[in-house]
Amino acid sequence: MDANSDKTIRFDSFLAEATRYESLDAKLLRDYGFNFFAAGRDTIASVLTWFFWLVASHPAVEAKILEEIEKVFGAVDRGNYKILSTEDVKKLVYLHGALCEVLRLFPPIPMERKKPIKADILPSGHVVDSNTNIVFSFYGMGRSEEIWGKDCLEFKPERWINEKGGIVHVPSYKFISFNAGARTCLGKDMSFIQIKIVTSAILQNYRVRIVKDHSDEVTPSLSIILLMKHGLKVKITKRQV
Ligand code: HEM
């Protein structure tokens, strides 16, 4: 971040400022800091990896993303590299839809475990007590026909766009990739902005293609974060026109 700009807050200034509050000790601040880095690094890496895999294997989607960028911001001047701003990327509705599809089909945190602090009855009628582990799968929910319909396994950014060309509002209890309720992700809006800035910059200037024969190897790793087991092998070339 730019230390001279009054529009940005440096992370170290944030920590210095925060220490002025008596209740925040150094250990708590360290844990806050670690939490932000841990929460926002591999999750974003996961989305970017699956995004480029899905977009490269759906050329029609890639064409529509580029068409939208050009429609909103005019023809790309490839000699004059431009990074879109936070406000700019809010105008990219189709790209937003594509990202929601990536997050639905490949949620970076594929499953969660929760434990009630006391006995309760879930809305489903299940009785739980403080020894019950409740495991739920965001991955499974994102691919559930009951929730998303017959085309649940298709990568279809259009499902997020309404007839007026705006974003369809989907409640977070349905689009669960950032969790919902009290423990919802604090970095949700920031993630969309960050990913849109990065993907639009790369797509405008580079063509990303999957290395031949690598497609068969693309599979998720069995881990806390849904990374690609063998990584994503791509060939990157500069877009000419
Ligand atoms: C696409 C990227 C991301 C996804 C899919 C994601 C997903 C999630 C999920 C599922 C949770 C809930 C965990 C739980 O139930 O305990 C969570 C929590 C959280 N996330 Fe994210 N996250 C993303 C990016 C980020 C970023 C960039 C930040 C901040 C830099 C961030 C900060 C947090 C924090 C602080 C929490 C804890 C909230 C709380 O427990 O009160 N996340 N995230």
TrEMBL record:
Superkingdom of origin organism: Eukaryota
Keyword tRNA processing on entry: no
Matching InterPro entries: Cyt_P450 (IPR001128), Cyt_P450_CS (IPR017972), Cyt_P450_E_grp-I (IPR002401), Cyt_P450_sf (IPR036396)
GO molecular function, one term: iron ion binding
GO biological process, one term: lipid metabolic process
Keywords assigned: Heme, Iron, Metal-binding, Monooxygenase, Oxidoreductase
Name of a matching Pfam family: p450
Cofactor(s) this protein requires: heme
Protein residues bound to heme: C185
Family: Belongs to the cytochrome P450 family.
Protein name, per record: Cytochrome P450
Species, as recorded: Arachis hypogaea (Peanut)
